[in-house]
């Protein structure tokens, strides 16, 4: 049976009693959207045949720090670090948006100029992180920060 959409789940919830909540969760919340960030990213890396080491190298994120982020040992409030990792992992815009959501960070928003440019960059894939930062600079935007810069 396929995954239920939100409308279908809301209809189910209309007739679900509090005592049936655990059952509802078992039956309806085991879907890819409930995967944690770590599992989601590792699955992407595996599907693309990329090692974590290569992704961190491409992202220009210190390897130890990257491993700690993916293991959940460390958290960052810097969305740019997650964006770097997603770009380096050759993730699509949709996959990147999902990763940001799973990491509980704001998704890229088309009405914000920098986010809009990043969305185009994720769609066009112009080159490596250095080239991405050059494009951002050319358009007067802040470059993707590295893990070493705190905001």
Measured distance between first and last alpha carbons? 46 Å
Q: What radius of gyration results from the CA coordinates?
A: 18 Å
Helix content: 55-70%
Strand proportion = under 5%
Label the overall shape. globular
> Count of helices?
9
What is the total domain count?
A: 1
Element order: H for helix, E for strand:
HHHHHHHHH
Which structural class matches the secondary elements? mainly alpha
Could you give the count of β-strands? 0
Low-pLDDT sequence parts: none
User: Whole-number average pLDDT?
Assistant: 88
Main sheet overview: none
Give an overview of the whole structure:
The protein is an all-alpha fold and 151 residues long. It has one domain. Helices cover 58% and strands 0% of the residues. It has 9 helices and no strands. Helix 4 crosses helix 6. The longest helix has 12 residues. The chain starts with 5 loop residues before the first helix and ends in a 13-residue tail after the last helix. 20% of the residues are buried. The model has no long low-confidence stretch (mean pLDDT 88).
Task: Briefly say what this structure is.
The chain is mainly alpha-helical and 151 residues long. The chain is built from nine helices and no strands. The protein has helices at residues 6-14, 21-28, 37-47, 52-59, 63-71, 79-88, 93-102, 113-124, 129-138.
């Amino acid at each position: 049976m396929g995954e239920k959409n939100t409308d279908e789940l809301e209809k189910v919830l209309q007739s679900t009693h509090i005592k049936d909540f655990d059952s509802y969760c078992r039956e309806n919340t085991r879907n890819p959207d409930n995967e944690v960030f770590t599992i989601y990213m590792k699955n992407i890396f595996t599907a693309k045949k990329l090692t974590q080491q290569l992704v961190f190298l491409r992202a220009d994120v210190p390897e130890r720090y990257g491993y700690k982020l993916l293991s959940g040992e460390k958290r960052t409030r810097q969305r740019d670090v997650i964006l770097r990792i997603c770009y380096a992992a050759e993730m699509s815009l949709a996959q990147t948006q999902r990763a940001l959501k799973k990491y509980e960070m704001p998704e890229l928003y088309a009405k914000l100029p920098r986010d809009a440019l990043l969305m185009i960059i994720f769609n066009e894939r112009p080159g490596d992180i250095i080239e991405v930062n050059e494009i951002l600079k050319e358009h007067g935007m802040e470059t993707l920060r590295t893990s070493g810069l705190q905001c």
